[in-house]
Structure to design on (728 residues):
């Protein structure tokens, strides 16, 4: 009997020790009720930490007896804290549900590939600039998105005019005309409308920016040889958002704007309104503006209609008006005289009307119809010369998404009509028309939990013409991407495809001389490309405090039948095709370190080796650094304050005159303090005052007939700004 009693006591002690030392918890999403892999569970005040497996189950051992506090975290979800008295007797794991973080819900969904998948499950390599970073960059430059893109790895914003400040986007070193800009999937910024696009897209209504690098014409047609940048607007929620901003800088810029949105069951709205004023600014006292005198205004209302749970209708209209005058600051401030007569005036009006109809069929299928009409009018005036014209663009896209068990199929068709008409030169007018009809099919296939494919093919019939020639092209554009997840830490994407670009007069080079002495297009045909990207990703937790992620990407693009700008014996400029290709190859390295969710360190390095074989002598593409380094350190207490320090290194660049520029560093600092619904911010951009005029004067020749060097770095020097934001 004594032996039996001892055995029972021993069994009870073992059972009690097991209950005390081992605890199981099942973690699910409250929204989808699906298990969450990779969630962290730790016991407060101890070194005990574990992660949930692919089934959402986490086991934590050696839990001390007594009252313990468990903290559960998962990226994109709100943290959950629970208290339990140990030992705990369990017949089944404790099930907990994590709520999706509203701030991050929209950031992880990708719309540019039309499948609305999370970024972790999208085979196509898509980079996102998230709402938090957009908000930080809006503090630095509320007027436009140039700051958001300029500081991203592998992307540069190239200033094209010394006096007007006009800029274009380069991806992987390729000219701006090879990057397609979208706003909510609408292509309204091409051809003549591209010259001021970056300066006329405000960031205040954006939820995220999606970037696809490499040939992407299969997704969106012409113009996506280098890649696609899709600016995604915020959509209203039942809890209204009312945001206002007031900003002032030392260089004379004032920004006043607001963004409002709200919805109920059947109807919603959003409204963006922004006005910007810039005084003429001459930092190097050479009498020529580095920043032009300007004023512009944007208003963008959108109406959201939800007749039932399966239907949504979005109607929007964006209107922007801009007036920019640069050149001789004496003329701008006091009027022209004999010695001060040079100016450059840009006036533009942009209006884009959009309609988006979404109709769910069954539980998972979606029919979507999108259409837009874009009107863009611009005039450029310099002494004794004027250029002006109107660009019309009509875009319609119809697609049907069919979701099956392990795959998604998209069938679609679109029509694009683009027309440019010059206003001032009827004899040699640069008028040009492009008509495109396209069909596309796309498949996303989950071959297994680890392997996913996304493939597609597009067929475009393109007709482009003017008074001098008429040509029709037919393009078949396949692409394929694959995602392989080695485990919960390692993954890799690889993809490639074909692309094309129809002819255009409106490039970075022709913008620099305001299209003066530029002949109309004649017998110029479309450019073609192929290329791809491949990357590897790593993400892990170190202890309970560190999150580390790493991405290494390689890219290659080859453009054939390139259009090049030449000059004839009469000093007129014209475009022609060359059989010599353009090759862009290189890699990007990105690393992110997060400590206790407060300290964040970002590091990005880009190596770009881009060659134009048609260039005599030096084949390097001009105004392109081979090496670029981005560094950013952020310290943040959520809803309290944030501090940021940034540093950027830019390598030497070849100019069009074959001169090699020096390399340079630039640094920036930002701070923001939140007082309830009010936030106050300050920003010091390029506070070390790196600027081109420190190396050589940008302006050459007499005041009344100047010439200007290529722009390869800052012209305005250091910039300080401060402002206030109100969020209701």
């Amino acid at each position: 009997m004594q032996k039996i009693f001892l055995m029972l006591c021993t069994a009870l002690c073992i059972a009690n020790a097991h209950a005390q030392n081992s605890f199981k918890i099942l973690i699910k999403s409250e929204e989808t009720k699906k298990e969450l892999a990779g969630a962290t569970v730790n016991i407060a005040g101890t070194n005990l930490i574990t992660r949930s497996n692919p089934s959402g189950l986490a086991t934590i051992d050696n839990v001390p007896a007594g009252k313990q506090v468990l903290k559960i975290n998962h990226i994109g979800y709100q943290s959950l804290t629970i208290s339990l008295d140990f030992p705990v007797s369990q017949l089944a794991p404790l099930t907990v549900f994590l709520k999706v973080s509203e701030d991050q819900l929209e950031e992880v969904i990708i719309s540019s590939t039309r499948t609305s998948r999370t970024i972790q499950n999208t085979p196509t390599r898509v980079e996102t600039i998230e709402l938090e970073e957009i908000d930080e960059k809006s503090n630095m430059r509320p007027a436009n998105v140039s700051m958001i893109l300029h500081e991203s790895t592998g992307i540069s914003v190239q200033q094209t005019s010394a006096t007007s400040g006009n800029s274009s986007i380069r991806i992987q070193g390729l000219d701006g005309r090879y990057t397609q800009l979208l706003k909510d999937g609408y292509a309204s910024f091409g051809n003549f409308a591209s010259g001021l696009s970056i300066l006329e897209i405000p960031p205040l209504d954006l939820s995220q920016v999606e970037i696809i690098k490499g040939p992407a014409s299969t997704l969106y047609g012409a113009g996506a040889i280098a890649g696609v940048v899709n600016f995604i607007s915020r959509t209203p929620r039942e809890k209204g958002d009312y945001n206002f901003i007031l900003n002032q800088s030392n260089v004379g810029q004032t920004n006043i704007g607001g963004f409002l949105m709200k919805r109920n069951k059947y109807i919603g709205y959003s409204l963006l309104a922004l006005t910007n004023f810039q005084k003429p600014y001459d930092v190097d006292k050479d009498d020529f503006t580095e920043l032009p005198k300007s004023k512009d205004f944007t208003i963008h209302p959108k109406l959201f209609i939800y007749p039932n749970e399966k239907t949504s209708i979005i109607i929007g209209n964006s209107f922007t008006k801009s007036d920019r005058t640069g050149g001789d600051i004496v003329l701008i401030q006091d009027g022209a005289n004999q010695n001060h007569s040079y100016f450059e005036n840009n006036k533009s009006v942009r209006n884009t009307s959009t309609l988006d109809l979404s109709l769910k069929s069954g539980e998972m299928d979606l029919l979507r119809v999108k259409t837009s009409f874009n009107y863009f009018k611009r005039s450029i005036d310099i002494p004794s010369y004027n250029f002006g014209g109107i660009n019309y663009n009509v875009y319609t896209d119809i697609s049907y998404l069919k979701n099956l068990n392990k795959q998604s199929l998209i069938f679609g068709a679109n029509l694009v009509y683009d027309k440019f008409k010059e206003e001032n030169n009827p004899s040699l007018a640069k008028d040009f028309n492009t008509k495109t009809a396209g069909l596309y099919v796309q498949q996303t296939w989950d071959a297994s939990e680890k392997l996913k494919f996304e493939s597609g093919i597009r067929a475009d019939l393109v007709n482009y013409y003017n008074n001098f020639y008429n040509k029709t092209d037919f393009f078949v554009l396949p692409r394929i991407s694959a995602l392989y997840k080695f485990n919960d830490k390692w993954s890799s994407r690889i993809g490639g495809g074909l692309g094309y670009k129809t002819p255009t007069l409106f490039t970075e080079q022709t913008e620099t001389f305001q299209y003066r002495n530029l002949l109309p297009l004649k017998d110029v045909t479309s450019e073609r490309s192929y290329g791809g990207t491949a990357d590897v990703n790593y993400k892990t937790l170190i202890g309970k405090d560190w999150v580390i992620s790493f991405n290494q990407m390689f890219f290659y693009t080859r453009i054939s039948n390139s259009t090049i700008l030449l000059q004839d014996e009469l000093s007129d400029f014209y475009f022609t095709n060359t059989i010599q290709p353009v090759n862009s190859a290189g890699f990007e390295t990105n690393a992110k370190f997060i400590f206790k969710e407060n300290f964040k360190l970002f590091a990005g390095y880009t190596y770009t080796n881009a060659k134009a074989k048609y260039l005599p002598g030096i084949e390097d593409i001009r105004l392109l650094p081979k090496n670029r380094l981005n560094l950013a350190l952020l310290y943040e207490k959520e809803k309290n304050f944030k501090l940021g320090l940034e540093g950027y290194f830019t390598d030497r660049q070849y100019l069009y005159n074959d001169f090699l520029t020096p390399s340079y560093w630039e640094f920036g600092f930002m701070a923001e303090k939140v007082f309830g619904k009010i936030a106050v911010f300050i920003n010091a951009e390029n506070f070390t005052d790196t600027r081109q005029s420190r190396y050589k004067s940008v302006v050459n020749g007499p005041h009344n007939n100047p010439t200007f060097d290529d722009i390869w770095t800052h012209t305005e020097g250091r910039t300080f700004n401060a402002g206030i934001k109100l969020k209701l």
Remarks:
- Helices lie at 2-21, 102-105, 131-140, 146-150, 217-220, 329-334, 508-512.
- The chain has seven helices and 41 strands.
